[in-house]
Design a protein that fits this description.
The chain is of the alpha+beta class and 224 residues long. It has one helix at 2-84, and strands at residues 91-97, 110-117, 121-122, 127-129, 134-144, 149-156, 159-167, 175-185, 190-198, 215-223. Strand 6 and strand 7 (159-167) form a beta hairpin.
């Protein structure tokens, strides 16, 4: 009987210990569950924040690219509009030099406009401004007094595309000479005649209203 009681007490003790262990384990599991829950929620919030940031950055980049494309489209539309409304004729002719003894480096200014189809020739500064990109041809005629000479160049945006000289230093009479030049000019670029060197005293050029003119002319040939 005594042995049975001892055995029962031992079993009760083991059961109590097992129950305590189970309780402790369940408590630990509950703590771990709470920890994992907090960790997962933190990871979820961080992932959502990172995703939102990535989406916003992608939207910004796409918008910037769309702005670039819109600007390019506007530029092409403007250029196309300019080409579509191109006039049939771009033509100018001017005469009467402002200076009959021009200095080296000076732009020749012709003060009287004969033709100006397309309104591209400026008699105030002697500059022709191309309204369209394309092939143009230009002609200048100078009537040079005897004993005089002049070196000059056809210029596009201050770069020469033809240079030449008229020399009457050994002549006893004046003479008129014409020179042609052809080049490609971009829209809004300018063309002018620039003096490289000339006689330093007395009138280099001669002009007669009835017979002899100094002229600068040009016209648009075709678009490219």
């Amino acid at each position: 009987m005594i042995r049975l009681e001892i055995s029962v007490e031992a079993m009760k003790k083991e059961i109590e210990e097992s129950r305590n262990q189970v309780t402790t384990t369940l408590g630990n599991l509950q703590t771990e569950r709470s920890t994992w829950k907090e960790t997962l929620l933190t990871m979820k919030d961080a992932s959502i924040t990172a995703l939102d940031t990535a989406i916003q950055e992608a939207k910004t980049q796409v918008q910037e690219e769309l702005n670039v494309l819109a600007a390019e489209k506007e530029r092409w539309n403007k250029d196309l509009t300019e080409r579509v409304r191109m006039p049939e004729v771009v033509l100018f002719s001017a005469r009467r030099p402002k200076h009959y003894t021009p200095a080296s480096g000076q732009t020749m200014i012709f003060t009287e406009i004969i033709l100006n189809k397309g309104d591209a020739c400026n008699k105030e500064n002697g500059v022709f401004t191309a309204p369209y990109t394309g092939v143009y041809t230009f002609t200048v005629q100078f009537c040079v007094n005897p004993g005089k000479h002049v070196d000059f160049a056809f210029m596009t945006n201050d770069k020469p595309f033809k240079k030449t000289r008229i020399n009457r230093s050994s002549s006893s009479s004046f003479s008129c000479s014409s020179f042609d030049a052809m080049t490609i000019v971009n829209m809004n670029e300018n063309v002018k005649i620039k003096i490289i060197a000339s006689s330093s005293s007395g009138n280099t050029f001669f002009e007669s209203n009835s017979n002899y003119w100094n002229t600068f002319s040009g016209h648009f040939i075709q678009a490219i």
